[in-house]
Every structure is written in structure tokens, then in C-alpha cells.
Design goal:
Distance between the termini: 42 Å
Number of helices: 15
Helix content: 25-40%
Structural class: alpha/beta
Shape: globular
Strand content: 15-25%
Mean pLDDT: 95
Strand order of the largest sheet: 2-1-3-8-7-6
Largest sheet: 6 strands, mixed
CATH class of the largest domain: Alpha Beta
CATH superfamily of the largest domain: MoaB/Mog-like domain
Number of domains: 3
CATH architecture of the largest domain: 3-Layer(aba) Sandwich
């Protein structure tokens, strides 16, 4: 089995100003390619620190991937750090320079010397073309270890990993057997309950392994299998676990793959030609935003309302003043009237509504911060659900959004 290491470069990472999503992406891709990560480091924009990290990791693993510090500014010092680790100087790469000149020509922008610095690579290293940006990547050999240096911009790093790194690893002599991977996405079931139902499948050392990671209000169970000693193929073992997990978790299963729930819901609506409207007080348009992010949703998405003020609930959706006076905007009665009003006004098959108290203020007798009412109106009636969500304002709104989408999913599945 091959081994890999990841080095992310940047003062902004060490200072907590941005989140290191690159290392997470690389860890997953390298593991699935047969090179599980054995070390991860984050270092400053300093050539000596970069050189030390590269030298240390190259002595331990077969493949090192470095992210960041390839731009044209004075703090982009990864090329210099790699050159130090290799014991060479940087020289101008004709191939990289041609790439840069072509990139700026396509953008109808002048190229200057500060841009061309990106073509100065460690002597003996090769350039990796970047079709998403200006900075070329770098490939170098240090002892028995192959070092890849990629831009820190996530979009560019993702593309270059798939275009350059992963294809090369397929033929790497140290490559181990990559596991067969499958997934099940669920929504609307607490992680503790799902974990209890799958406890025997998730025990340590089992083949396949089953692990989980949570989203805002959904959970993905990841299955990884290798061929069994008795000859059962990894794909068959993974298939069996997907079927077993699906059977045990029932209606909570969103998809038998790794998916975002709102994408699945939108696709179901499109497939079944069910039109939808949303009325969002608490969530302020978040449900609508997620739905309309999916291509093709225009065929079924009728309207989105964000009637935050009571007057808007009354004048746009027809919520009666008596409901607002007697029960308040945060109530089962108001959520029901909002959903039914949105369905009627938009002429939709389905409508979902949200209302609640996100906090930190607004609590009242019997309605603490985190009180949420969701309603789903359809032919034959309206379902209303009350939630008590623990968390800050952002957490309350995020969970309410995803739970409202799950109500919609359960209505159309």
C-alpha cells in the first residue's frame, strides 16, 4: 500500500482566516487512489519552513502533495521552498512561460514580469498545466518520493488533482489496492439513532468498513470494501451493505449514494412533474435558494415568498388577522395558513412554509428561542411539524431549512 502526505502552505491558514478545504479533498482522493495519507502539515509562507516540511515528508512517504503559494505575489514562496528541498535554484520554464502568455492572451490582459515569475520552477522539475488559472503546477522527484505542488485556489487544485495527480498514481509502483466505495445519504433521523441501528456494521476492523459524517441535517454513511479472503469481490460486499443500511434506515434514506438532499428533492419534483411553492419567514428564502440551484427546476418551481412581517403574511398569503392576533406568527396555525396560502396563490401542487424564533431575542411564553413550525400543504391536507432546535441563530435557520426540505422529500418520494 502506498503512503502519501499533504502540506498546505499559507499564513492565512495558520491564522485561521480561511478554512483548509484542500486538505480534506486531497485526503479523500489520495485514499481512494490507493495512497492513504499518513501525515498532514500546514506551514507558513516561508521558504525554509516549506523546505523543511517537504524534506521531512518526502523521507516518509511515496507521494507528497503541496497546496498553495504558487501565485505572482511576494508571499508566494512555495517554488523557492521546493527548490531548497531539492538543493537547486529556480529557472525559467519555457513550457510554463508559454502557458502563462497564452492564458493572459485569452483574457486579453497584458503579461508582465511579476506574472512570469510563476514560470520560474526548480531546476529538474516539470510543469503541470493549469486550465483553470494562471499558476502552473510543479512535479518533482526527491529521493524515492514524488512531489506535486498545486495552486491553493480550490477550483484549480481540484481540477489539477484529477487531471494530473490521480492519473499518474494509477501507474505508480507503490500504489495499493484502492477500496471500493459506496455511500448512503439519510435525512430526518438523528445520528445517534442511525448509529444505534447500524452498530454491528460499524464495528472496527470489519470489511466493509462503515463510517459516517454529518451535514447540517443530513448524514452520509460511507462504505469502503476490499476483496474478501473467501474471494467475494469488494463491489459485492459494498452492495450488500448498501442494501442492509437502506433496509434498516427506511424512509430516512435520501439516496444510495453521496448526495445533497436538496438536489435529490429537486430531481424528484422534476421527475414527477409536481409543482412547488415556498413561503419562508424564518428561513428568508433559503429553501427556495437551494431548490433553484438545481438545473431544470424552472419546470416545477412556481414561486418563493419571504413574508417576514405579519402584514406581508396577511396581504400576500392571506393569513387571517385573527390567527396572527390569537396565535402569533410563530404558531402551528400560522405555518398552516402560510403553506396553504402559498399553494393557493402560486397554483402549486405542493407548498412548504417556515416560521420560528431564530434568536437571540424574540422568545415568549411557551415559545423559547429555537421554536420552529414547518408546514407542508398538498392535495388532501396540510401537515405541520413543531421543532425545538438548539443552537445559535445560524444553526436554527440552517436546520429549519433542511428539515423543511425533508418534509417536501417525504411528500414526493
Amino acid at each position: 500500500m502506498g503512503k502519501s502526505a499533504i502540506i498546505t502552505v499559507g499564513d492565512e491558514l495558520l491564522g485561521g482566516r480561511i478554512t483548509d478545504t484542500n486538505a480534506t479533498f486531497l485526503s479523500r482522493e489520495l485514499r481512494l487512489a490507493g495512497f492513504p495519507v499518513r501525515r498532514r502539515e500546514t506551514v507558513a509562507d516561508d521558504p525554509a519552513a516549506i523546505a523543511d516540511a517537504v524534506t521531512r515528508c518526502a523521507a516518509l512517504v511515496d507521494v507528497v502533495v503541496v497546496s498553495g503559494g504558487l501565485g505572482p505575489t511576494l508571499d508566494d514562496l512555495t517554488r523557492d521552498g521546493l527548490a531548497r528541498a531539492m538543493g537547486v535554484s529556480c529557472v525559467r520554464s519555457k513550457e510554463a512561460e508559454a502557458h502563462l502568455r497564452a492564458f493572459f492572451a485569452r483574457a486579453d490582459r497584458p503579461v508582465n514580469e511579476s506574472n512570469l515569475v510563476q514560470a520560474d520552477l526548480p531546476e529538474g522539475a516539470s510543469s503541470l498545466m493549469n486550465d483553470q488559472g494562471s499558476a502552473p503546477g510543479v512535479r518533482a522527484q526527491i529521493g524515492e518520493s514524488t512531489v506535486y505542488v498545486l495552486p491553493g485556489v480550490p477550483r484549480e487544485l481540484y481540477a489539477m488533482t484529477r487531471n494530473h495527480v490521480l492519473p499518474a498514481l494509477v501507474a505508480h509502483p507503490a500504489r495499493g489496492a484502492a477500496p471500493t466505495r459506496a455511500a448512503v445519504t439519510i435525512c430526518g433521523m438523528p445520528e445517534s439513532e442511525a448509529g444505534r441501528k447500524l452498530r454491528d456494521l460499524m464495528r472496527r476492523g470489519r470489511n466493509p468498513s462503515v463510517g459516517s459524517y454529518p451535514g447540517v441535517s443530513h448524514i452520509v454513511f460511507v462504505i469502503e470494501a476490499v476483496d474478501a479472503d473467501d474471494g467475494t469481490p469488494a463491489a459485492e460486499l459494498a452492495r450488500r451493505d448498501v442494501a442492509e443500511i437502506t433496509a434498516r434506515l427506511g424512509s430516512a434514506v435520501v439516496a444510495t449514494e453521496e448526495r445533497q438532499p436538496h438536489e435529490v428533492i429537486a430531481e424528484l419534483l422534476i421527475e414527477r412533474r409536481l409543482t412547488v411553492a415556498v413561503a419562508e419567514s424564518l428561513t428568508g428564502g433559503r429553501v427556495a435558494d437551494l431548490l433553484v440551484s438545481v438545473p431544470g427546476i424552472s419546470a416545477v418551481f412556481k414561486a418563493g415568498f419571504a413574508p417576514y412581517a405579519n402584514e406581508a403574511k396577511r396581504d400576500i398569503l392571506g393569513v387571517s388577522q385573527q390567527i396572527l392576533d390569537d396565535h402569533g406568527a410563530v404558531s402551528e396555525e400560522c405555518a398552516r395558513a402560510m403553506a396553504e396560502g402559498a399553494r393557493r396563490v402560486a397554483g402549486a401542487d405542493l407548498a412548504v412554509a417556515t416560521t420560528g424564533i431564530a434568536g437571540p431575542t424574540g422568545a415568549g411564553p411557551g415559545k423559547p428561542v429555537g421554536t420552529v413550525f414547518l408546514a407542508l400543504a398538498k392535495e388532501g391536507g396540510t401537515d405541520v411539524r413543531r421543532l425545538q432546535i438548539v443552537g445559535d441563530r445560524e444553526q436554527v435557520r440552517a436546520r429549519a431549512t433542511m428539515t423543511a426540505l425533508d418534509l417536501l422529500r417525504r411528500a414526493v418520494r
